[in-house]
Each structure stands twice: as C-alpha cells, then as structure tokens.
Amino acid sequence: MKKLVLVSLKTFAFFVGWAICVSILPIPDTKSAAVWRFWAELIPLLSVIGFTIIFWLIDKRNIRLHLTGKPVYNIVLGCITGAIWLGVSVVILSLTGAIHIDGRNQISMLWLWLFSAFINSVMQEVLVRGYLYQMIKNNYNIVVAVLISTGLFTFAHGGAFEAGILPVLNVITMSLFVTAVLEYTESLVAPIVIHFLWNGVGAIILGGVSLAEDYPHLFNMIISGNSILSGGSCKIEGSIVVLFMNLILMFGFVMAKKKRDKNL
Fold it and tell me: What predicted TM-score, i.e. pTM, was given to this entire model?
C-alpha cells in the first residue's frame, strides 16, 4: 500500500507539476509566428527535462531512463519505421482516392517550424515514456507502466474524444506501438524519430496530420469520401488504415522483442 501511494504521488506531482510550470511560464512576445511557436514548444520541453532531473535525483539516480542508447542504430531504425508507418498509410489512402494533394503553399522559416515539431516530439516522449514510465515499470511491471503511460498520452490528446471512437483508438494504438519500439530498442531515440516524422512530414509537409492550429503545411491535402477510411475532420489520424498500421507495427515490435529475449 505504501508503494502504491508513493508511486501515485510521484506520478501526480510530476505530471501536474509540469503542467503548472508550463502554464505559468510566459512565452516571449514576438511578431514572428515561427519564433513564437518555437518558444511555445521549447518551454514545455525544458520544463519536462527539469522535472525529470529533479525526480531522478530524488530517486538517487536509481531509475534507468533509457534516453539515448545506440543513437545511430536507433535513428536509422526510427527513420525506417516512421517512413513505413506514414508512407504506407498515405499510399493506401491515395490509391483508394480518400486523399489527394491539391497545390502547395509558401512557408517562411520552414526549418524552424520543423525544428519546433521536433522539440514537441521530444517533449511528448520524455514526458510520457521517460522518467514516469521507467519509474512505474521499476516499481511494478511493464503492464502497469504501459497502461498509465498510454492513459497519460491519450489524456494529452483529449481532442480526439470529440471526434469519435476511431481517432481515440488511433491515439491509444499509436502510444502502444511507440511503447513497443521503446521496449525493443531500450531507448527513446527511435520513438522520438518516429513521432517527429509523423508530425513533421505528416503535418507540416503533407498537411495530413493535425498539430496546433498555427502550424503551416507545405502541401494542401484534400480529404474526401467515407470518413472511416479517410479520417474526415481528423485527417489521416482518424483513418482505419492508420489503426491497422498501428496494430501491425505494434505486434511486429512485440514479437521482435520476444524473439530477441528468447535468444539471449
């Protein structure tokens, strides 16, 4: 009972403390939308890094955070996996006529928008699958850690609940898929790369993924047809094709980890 109370208090203090910190820290005033967005993403990242260091030190550095193991291997794996995840989804939806590209836009400081999306991906992964995940796993087991981290990730994407069951299932299975990658690689590098490719390429380049409203998109992706297939107002994130891709990739990494562990 004592352990349950302690873990619950740590989880609550970490997540709520981070949220309060983000809400009270001011975003520097700037006329540039790209620069404003950069600061809006950087402050939450610095906050979660700060809380991670504080709680890690409180735990006397006993929690292995698995942040940057095998960086080159995991960057390559993340790029390949992310390209398959987004690429296959877009190709299938294109071939079925659910999506098509209609024109492009000029984006000032595209590199900074992409970098901001990268910062956001790092922040989300460190928040959900960093200290909290490893602390819960260390005190209980992987099942409890997965359930709580997936719940937090889904809560952080609460807008999906307004769009229906399929977008919610996609958020949940996306979290499970990326957690499976974390467990297989024992590093946050590949999950961060995968997350960034989905947001950076899927949203800012292709215009098929929803980010904060001020993020621009290079191409205009037109969504049409049945919303179950196309994703409707949620764009491709609400598509059943993405749900199947999430499940396939999740099971693939789960089986790969089981096979590797069996051979050890």
Answer: 0.94
